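Render this sequence as a predicted structure.
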Amino acid sequence: MSTNTTTSNISSSTSSNTVIILNILLRQYIIHLPLIFIIFGFIGFIGNALTYLQLEFRSNSCCIYSLCSSIADIINLIYNLLSVYLSGVYGIYIPWFRSPNICKFYIFFLGFAPNLSINFLLMSIIDRYACTCSLTSRIRRLNQIKMVPWLICITILFSFISSIRPLILYEYQLGKGCVAIQTLLNNILYIILNGTIQPVTMIIFVLLTFRNVHMSRQRVGGIVLTKSHRTRNQFISLILVQILITGLLSLQWIIMYTYYAIPVTVPRTSEQQTIISFVYSLTNYCYYLNNVKSFYLSIATSGLFRQTFMKGLIRLLPRHQRQRWQLTQTNLHMMTLTKINPQR
């Protein structure tokens, strides 16, 4: 009997320690992740804007979609994640969250901004798929600059339609703010629209792009690739890496959201509830990395992006420093050529 009592006390003590540790981590460390993400996201937005607005990129349709995605990223971080941080740390709430008239639009925009960002990323891979199609294909027209404004409008419209759920299924309740009136239907629509359709569509176009690139390599055989083909392939690699990371970040969140949304018949213990809340908060914050990662992944995976970014930075320098840097680079280039081709 005493053995059972001792075991029970040890188990209770372990559970209590787990709850305390997770609460400390959540309140002292995890809760400050939004501020870190916002800072790095803002730096990344400046870097993307500086790069994609350079002469080499601003007439490229894929770069235009990437820039639009970056704009949606920073809007989502400032509008959504900043409000989460202010309310969680300082208890400062956005006024319209508790307004009966416009709280629905606040909830709507919580879904619209991340949807818009991911849909522009989807447009980037569709654009790369189009540029790998044959020259006689009608899909190739999607690469034309004159089509970009129309496709941007279509992307915004589609994002609006796929995010309209809160305007229909939410209503204001006194003391609670906007809450879903049909919770199960709301959760199902969120999981399908945000957790299924976007990733599946991305995977389809990734596979189609790979197929076209493989077929193109078979046709050209051993012919040396032109500069335009190398540039195209670099953009394809860059977008594919971004889509892979986006898929992983979205998957970890949607899995946790689905688990959290499933109604349970057996009541959970306080330890289980604490663990679930901790993982839910952590995965939700990590989901916002979709709005932070773009610039850093581009720098890490694309030499062309790095070169263009450096050119943009150099153009911001004063004229005398810019000339000094160019002279230094010229000397380094000459020294490299001398080492490769030594005089006899």
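Summary. The chain is about 75% helix and 0% strand. The first helix runs from residue 2 to 28.
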